[in-house]
């Protein structure tokens, strides 16, 4: 069987990693300095998206999916060797402008009042809840444990208005790799440590992570 997993969707998915869940970490400007150092050791901060290390549930390797440097992978080689044959990981694609625009503080400044629709994390995501981007960050976005129920977990996964979010999506530099007969549609999501999308199917796709 062949895998055809590239490029109908470029899914820009922020594996955002979230605040240490204690008051002080949530409001960093109010933090005293006494425990600061100890907290810093326990918190991963990527672009202002913070995760307490204890909430990281991913396991280290082994990973045997081929990793390819975008600076050395041509469209020709991509098509011939990988596009119709196997999944790959491509690294070294420059998206620094997009990364700057998706830092936590910047996103709050630009998108706080923007309407979004949250989906439940169970199969088929039956539940849809209208919210705003700021409300999502402040009340829903948090790490999930293995005990969290999918039907009771809400997150932002792709259900955004492509017109209002166009200024941001336009800044995403799409990888040069194309699949004949397909065009790309962009979607993005944002969720905390320990979350995951329910098992699902779609056409060829490419998935970019920021602030992992
Ligand atoms: C989620 O699923 C569990 C287990 O099936 C159920 O007990 C619970 O009531 C559900 N929660 C909601 C909000 O539907």
Question: How would you explain this protein's 3D organization?
Answer:
The chain has 212 residues and is of the alpha/beta class. The protein has one domain (2-210): Jelly Rolls (Sandwich). It contains seven helices and ten strands. It has helices at 23-26, 36-42, 75-83, 96-101, 104-111, 133-140, 166-169; strands at 9-15, 43-46, 49-52, 67-69, 89-91, 115-120, 128-132, 154-157, 185-191, 205-210. The strands form three sheets. A six-stranded mixed β-sheet has the order 7-6-8-9-1-10. Strands 2-3 form a two-stranded antiparallel ribbon. The model is unreliable at 1-32 (pLDDT under 50). Residues 149, 151-152 line the site of 2-acetamido-2-deoxy-beta-D-glucopyranose (NAG).
How would you state the average pLDDT, rounded?
80
- Rounded to the nearest angstrom, the radius of gyration is 18 Å
- Cα distance, first to last residue? 31 Å
Overall shape:
globular
Bound molecules: 2-acetamido-2-deoxy-beta-D-glucopyranose
Report the CATH C-level class: Mainly Beta
The H/E string reads EHHEEEHEHHEEHEHEE
Largest sheet data: 6 strands, mixed
Structural domain tally: 1
Q: What percent of residues are in strands?
A: 15-25%
CATH topology: Jelly Rolls
Looking at the overall shape, the CATH architecture is Sandwich
Key phrases:
212 residues; Jelly Rolls; 7 helices; binds 2-acetamido-2-deoxy-beta-D-glucopyranose; signal; JmjC domain-containing protein
């Amino acid at each position: 069987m062949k895998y055809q997993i590239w490029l109908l969707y470029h899914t820009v998915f922020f594996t955002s990693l979230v605040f240490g869940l204690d008051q002080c970490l949530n409001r960093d400007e109010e933090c005293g300095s006494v425990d600061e150092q100890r907290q810093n050791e326990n918190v991963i901060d990527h672009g202002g998206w913070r995760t307490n290390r204890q909430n990281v549930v991913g396991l280290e390797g082994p990973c045997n999916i081929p990793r390819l440097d975008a600076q050395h992978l041509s469209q020709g080689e991509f098509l011939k060797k990988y596009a119709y044959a196997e999944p790959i990981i491509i690294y070294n694609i420059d998206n620094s402008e997009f990364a700057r625009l998706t830092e936590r503080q910047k996103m709050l400044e630009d998108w706080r009042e923007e309407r979004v629709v949250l989906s439940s994390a169970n199969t088929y995501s039956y539940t849809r809840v209208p919210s705003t981007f700021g409300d999502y960050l402040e009340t829903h976005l948090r790490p999930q444990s293995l005990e969290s129920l999918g039907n009771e977990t809400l997150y932002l996964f792709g259900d955004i208005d492509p017109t209002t979010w166009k200024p941001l999506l336009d800044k995403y530099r799409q990888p040069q790799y194309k699949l004949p007969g397909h065009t790309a549609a962009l979607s993005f999501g944002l969720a905390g440590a320990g979350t995951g999308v329910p098992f699902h199917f779609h056409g060829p796709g490419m998935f970019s992570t920021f602030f992992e």
